[in-house]
Amino acid sequence: MTTTVSRVQGAEAGARAETIAVWQAQVRIRVLAKGSGPALVYFHGPWGLTWDPFLDELARDFTVHAPEHPGTTPDAPDDAYKLDGLWDLVLCYEELLDALGLERAVLVGHSFGAMVACELAAAYPRRARGLALIDPIGLWRETAPIVNWMMLNPADLPAHIFNEPNGEAARRMLGAPDDQDPAARLRLMWAMGATGKFIWPLPDKGLRKRIHRVKAPTLLLWGRDDRLVPPSYADEFARRIPGARVQMVERAGHAPHLERPEPVARMLREFLTGVT
Amino acid sequence: MKISAFHLMPHRELPSDFEQRYESVWVTPPWWELADATRVGQYYNWTLDELLYAARAGFDGVCTNEHHQNAYGFMPSPNLMGSVLAKLTNGSDVAIVQMGATLPTSNPPIRVAEEYAMLDCISGGRLVAGLPLGSPMDVNLCYGITPLEHRERYREAFALTLKAWQAREIFAWNGRYTQLANVNLWPRPIQRPHPPVWVPGSGSISTFDFAVEHDVCYCFLSYSGARSAKSMMDGYWRVVADRGREPNPYRAGFLQLVAVAENDAQAEAKYARHVEYFYHKCLHVPSPWFAPPGNQDYRSLAASLANPVRRAENPKTLRYRDFVEKGYVIAGSPATVRQRLEEEVIKSLRVGNLMVLLQIGSMPHELALENIDLFAREVLPHLRRTWDDEGWVNHWWPERLRGAKGSAAAITSVAAGGA
What we know:
The complex is a heterodimer of chains A (276) and B (419).
Chain A: E1 2-7, E2 16-22, E3 27-34, E4 39-43, H1 53-59, E5 63-67, H2 86-99, E6 105-110, H3 112-123, E7 128-134, H4 157-161, H5 168-174, H6 182-196, H7 207-210, E8 218-223, H8 233-238, E9 245-249, H9 256-259, H10 261-273
Parallel strand pairs in A: 4-5, 4-6, 6-7, 7-8, 8-9
Antiparallel strand pairs in A: 1-2, 2-3, 3-5
Helix pairs in contact in A: 1-10, 2-3
Chain B: E1 2-6, H1 18-21, H2 31-34, H3 37-57, E2 61-64, H4 78-88, E3 95-98, H5 110-123, E4 127-130, H6 136-142, H7 147-166, E5 171-174, E6 179-183, E7 197-201, H8 205-213, E8 217-221, H9 225-242, E9 252-260, H10 264-282, H11 298-306, H12 320-326, E10 329-332, H13 334-349, E11 353-357, H14 365-383
Parallel strand pairs in B: 1-2, 1-11, 2-3, 3-4, 4-7, 7-8, 8-9, 9-10, 9-11
Antiparallel strand pairs in B: 5-6
Helix pairs in contact in B: 3-14, 4-5, 5-7, 8-9, 9-13, 13-14
């Protein structure tokens, strides 16, 4: 394991960046970190990691560690090929927790990242102090198919992910509408490809067989207007995780933490107060 | 040079408002609204009859290909078609060009090696083994292969295929995607060390590199004609030169749409609506589906985003005369077609293995036969000796057919089955 510390681009957020190589140094993962207090690991969704107001909110009470999924770290795109499947990915993240010196941590994730957090909490129940899943994927219902965002025209992504497709949160994650910036488009497309590796063609890789192993107190947060992953999935998760709580976020789509950072962070803090 | 008849086996009777009513010709067109199995049986028989007609008329090869869940060209198993063609062309010098069965969607991929060996045995060593990556619509969207793994799976399966054909000893294959304890192919192909291999592509740099590295024939399957293919093919020949390979025109294949009539005006009268049907309906696919995230490797994706090969225009806005003018389709009198094929395609792109698509879109059976017949009589004989003066050997053609000059007389006379 090797680490490299560097500055974050657009570092107005003041986060620290550290690149950690796991998996026999074949997979380099940049981890953004900020704040103080109990450790919280945040796993981003399929469109790449951007430091955002939600993470700033969390950093007021927690030491937030936000790793980039393999392949999405700058200058390490081909590391995505070093993992064969979800099992490898979960093991990679367990190595990362060790590298960060975190025996236990609060695990938070969004979308694909929430599936990763849930898998990690199921594989290593004692390492998750608490679990917060924001519009997670990982289960499948015949009657409520999940939209495959990788088949959409990128220009149509904002309307699928966000309640306000022209809002600031959408712009922060996906760039300006009709963005012709090749670097931004490359980052977005590759992030979808690298994360898509673990969920193609349907985002059900057997979590339902493992989810009963989750022992951490769990909160499910769901945007009421999620057009990618229907909010009815909240019940699917809740009934499989004993004691899980569900909170709907009004006026939000698939990324409620980005569209409503303050109320979502508040819900999370209230939940975690009893946990940490 | 070698000239083969290519066929897609399209739906020939899509509704006139198809592209307005439906999302895509590929992956999601609703079968129950758009097709009828009995009628589709007729299409398959027409397709076979058209290819057999081409074989009898003097073409050097007949080509089939694999696609799934679409009305654009639906031979999900090209080898079923190929086996009919192999049997019914026995005794002739026509190559069975499978363009072909798709390795990443065959499980285990030695299935392709086995079926190709069968075809080579049935045809008496007349197989050309096309080994395509498969389109993203087929492989990723219809057959569920993860886009990021598509090329890796292909490369592994390609290596396994070549080894399975040639190995003298039984071997174990401990691959990333395929594990087999006893690879011992039955049958093996007649052609030694293995049938000639063609790798079709659509201009991606990594496929050029792959084709040159493995010394196979690279086939550019384009519907946009030679003019737009020129820079791609120049790029290919640069890679050939950089790798120190000889500039043998037979290491390049190209697919061209062709429509021949007595004169240019008659070509328009006969073929215009079928050409427009092809470009407006058969290619009606949402553009993101051609490149789902992860399908292109990072280097190719970065290159294409930084310098997008912008399609000059949306084909749906073009009409017959535009397609002809731009060379998407080479159409007109035999003289026009001969000249344009020779200058724009064969010489300009340096193509030794030409494939022509003569049944286009909604073109009915009788008109397809007419097009094939005119091409075979008035065009093909004039082009056949194009590269003879340079003296290259077509290493990518079945050895026993290399010297053949279109002697199709021996083909079994076939009752027009089902037609």
